[in-house]
Amino acid sequence: VKNSGGNHYSLFDAREKAKITQRLELEAEISTAIANKNFEVWYQPQINTLTHEVYGIECLLRWNHPTQGMIGPDLFIPIAEASGAIKELGSFVLETACKQLRQWRINNIFTGIMAINVSLRQFERNDLLAQVRETLIKEMIPGDAIELEVTESVFSEGNCHHSPILSAIRGLGVKVAIDDFGTGYSSLQRLKNMPIDNVKIDKCFVNRIVYSRKDEAIIQALILLSKTFNVSLIAEGVETKQQAKKLTKLGCFNQQGYFYSKPLPAEQFELWLTNYHKE
Ligand code: C2E
Ligand code: CA
Ligand code: CA
Ligand code: CA
Fold this sequence. Notes:
Elements: H1 4-35, E1 39-48, E2 53-65, E3 69-71, H2 73-83, H3 86-106, E4 113-117, H4 128-139, E5 146-151, H5 162-170, E6 175-181, H6 188-191, E7 198-201, H7 203-207, H8 213-229, E8 232-235, H9 241-250, E9 254-255, E10 264-265, H10 266-278
Helix pairs in contact: 1-2, 3-4, 4-5
Bound molecules: ligand C2E and calcium ion (CA) (3 copies).
One calcium ion binds next to loops.
């Protein structure tokens, strides 16, 4: 096609420009959106394949935008992290999740662990510990009913001052999970010293476990390590029955993924849970 080069560039520029504009707009809207209750927490079950029990739930944010529809966190979390609005959003998720958990505990709908994602930047507030403690007290939830999911970056060399904060939070009974394990830069050496209770194997390893001997070997190695280090292990991104079976056969019983359920809004999650127990 003749002259397509020039057009490509202008098309690219226009697309880039639209992206940047959207970014700036979303960034400016986050605070109002929290106030307007446009953010929602959705819930995804974590299953033990031996007992078939739903022992945990991960909280995942959604933005119900008035003009753009439902926006996923992969788009707005990086924006919120860059602008600092993640601190406000993080507080919203913690409060919403604990309020929901209290309700579910009272009605005997769910009494397991609520897992909440926490960004690196939330550690910049020196009140993360106080915030967690106060939320637990306010909602009358025992510490060991929640788990904070953090990424390896929280334990990187430049952030070594975050580990004592996590240790103090664990002092409340709260569990700490390392998210997306295996995708960051942390060495196994460092895993040894991390104040954590749970390792979440990233979905990229789970993806190909049925076909790739190498990914199978990685998961086998992690299962061994987790036993030695006395931490629990969960595989995320389980999408098929074959993956679920294979993981169970290897000894990885804690699983999460679309095969069981996609993340759902609170009401739908309750329905899913009721039907799951009937099966
Ligand atoms: P994550 O913490 O690793 O969460 C898992 C992501 O994988 C979620 O995407 C979930 O919907 C998706 N997922 C679950 N099962 C499957 C599966 O079987 N297959 C596939 N392909 N995907 C699956 P989601 O909800 O779009 O969230 C994306 C990321 O946004 C999260 O990754 C997390 O890093 C971040 N995020 C979400 N909610 C929050 C939050 O409340 N606070 C913070 N700081 N980050 C959040
Ligand atoms: Ca997570
Ligand atoms: Ca993850
Ligand atoms: Ca992730």
